[in-house]
Amino acid sequence: MSATLYRLASAPFEAACHVGALPEGHRARRLHGHSYLARVRVRHAAADGPCDCAGLAGRLAATVAPLDYAYLNDIVAEPTDENLARWIGARLDLPGVAALGIQSTPLAGVDLDAGGGAHVWRRFRFEAAHRLPHVPPGHPCGRMHGHGFEVILHAQTALGTRDLALDHDHLAALWAPLHAELHHACLNDLPGLANPTSELLAAWIWARLKGVLPELSWVTVYETVSAGCHYDGHHYRIWKEQRFEAALQLTRAAAGDPRRGLHGHSYVVRLHLAAPLDTVMGWTVDYGEVKALFAPLYQQIDHHRLDALPGLDQADPASLAQWLRERLHAALPALDRIDLFETPACGVALCWGGLGPALPG
Ligand SMILES: Nc1nc2c(c(=O)[nH]1)N=C([C@H](O)[C@H](O)COP(=O)(O)OP(=O)(O)OP(=O)(O)O)CN2
């Protein structure tokens, strides 16, 4: 199956603003400040040459530099997240931009797609207990345990020429009654959540909100910091994330590029899988099983020199993601996307499933 490769990059900036486009009395009409993060996802074709995600991260950082420690209203008349994303997109001036996003806090942001759509998201957290009643004896999730769950509500809407797609506060207001039910609860005790897997929790939240939020496009549930599930009303997609530490040398980098010499990174790899729900277990694929099936490959890359691995003489993120795909597809047939970050600011997403790339990433 052919795959689509995206370069992913992000760049932070600190800035002050006030947003007059919001209704009278809204707190963001007052002068305030944010630690912003700009994010971009750019489609990369073989004809584009080497897939240099660090180059993209550098270009994005240079593009947002005029916004750093600035009063944004001097630069963008109405500095909503949507307008900041437009401003950055126009100056980045790159072909193949699939999404350009701004998060004004770690809890909220918006991504603009190439078709003029706005994808608004807001992150929430609740602390709860649960156990999974149908797992085999001895499975750790069969015991009563708990998590600091995180949920992202995603809303997709056409933006047109508007300054603002949807106020994040609207998502927060709709979430509030669910938070009251879920926070400090035992999920198994809630009606409809007798088997509270991430998948069934995401579907439960979807069923509760879709009627009052027609723009709802995905619900994301982070069960732990490293694993979670997306649900869009039809499809379940899960991910499992792992970190690894490795060295490499990019012998084909341009003359003078320090990456021609030995260097290293703390990598993050995120494996995404799309599969139908197992109606007995209430999940798609067990996160623990994904980790176990990845383990033999993980042992080859963690605390190793990547360019010494058989079949991987250039260990740039795109080549490494492809290398992992070739070695994982037999063990994990539901795998349909691999995200690989060499730093928090730069990486790739290799996607070959029928569904578009789901956030995060
Ligand atoms: N597809 C699903 N798989 C699993 C679910 C689930 O809801 N859907 N739930 C669990 C457990 O509840 C467990 O607490 C979380 O799983 P896991 O990522 O395996 O937990 P760890 O944090 O312990 O993982 P490590 O990476 O090994 O630290 C299991 N599977």
List keywords for this structure.
361 residues, alpha+beta, Tetrahydropterin Synthase, Chain A, 12-stranded antiparallel barrel, 15 strands, 22% helix, 36% strand, binds ligand LPXRUNBV
Give the structure's gist in a few sentences.
This protein has about 350 residues and is of the alpha+beta class. It is about 20% helix and about 35% strand. The protein has helices at about 55-65, 80-90, 170-180, 200-210, 285-300, 315-330; strands at about 5-15, 30-45, 70, 95-105, 110-115, 115-130, 145-160, 185, 215-225, 225-230, 235-250, 265-275, 305, 335-345, 345-350.
Blueprint of the fold:
Elements lengths: L3 E14 L14 E13 L8 H12 L5 E2 L9 H12 L4 E9 L2 E6 L3 E14 L14 E14 L9 H15 L2 E2 L11 H12 L6 E9 L2 E5 L4 E13 L14 E12 L12 H15 L2 E2 L11 H12 L6 E9 L2 E6 L10
Parallel strand pairs: 1-3, 6-8, 11-13
Antiparallel strand pairs: 1-2, 1-15, 2-4, 4-5, 5-6, 6-7, 7-9, 9-10, 10-11, 11-12, 12-14, 14-15
Question: Can you give a write-up of this model?
Answer:
With 361 residues, the protein is an alpha+beta fold. It has a domain of 115 residues: 2-Layer Sandwich (Tetrahydropterin Synthase, Chain A), CATH 3.30.479.10. The protein is 22% helix and 36% strand. It has six helices and 15 strands. A twelve-stranded antiparallel barrel has the order 1-2-4-5-6-7-9-10-11-12-14-15, surrounded by six helices. The longest helix has 15 residues. The two termini are 22 Å apart. The model has no long low-confidence stretch (mean pLDDT 94). The site of ligand LPXRUNBV has 17 residues, from helix 4, strand 9 and helix 5. The site of the ligand Nc1nc2c(c(=O)[nH]1)N=C([C@H](O)[C@H](O)COP(=O)(O)OP(=O)(O)OP(=O)(O)O)CN2 has 17 residues, from helix 4, strand 9 and helix 5.
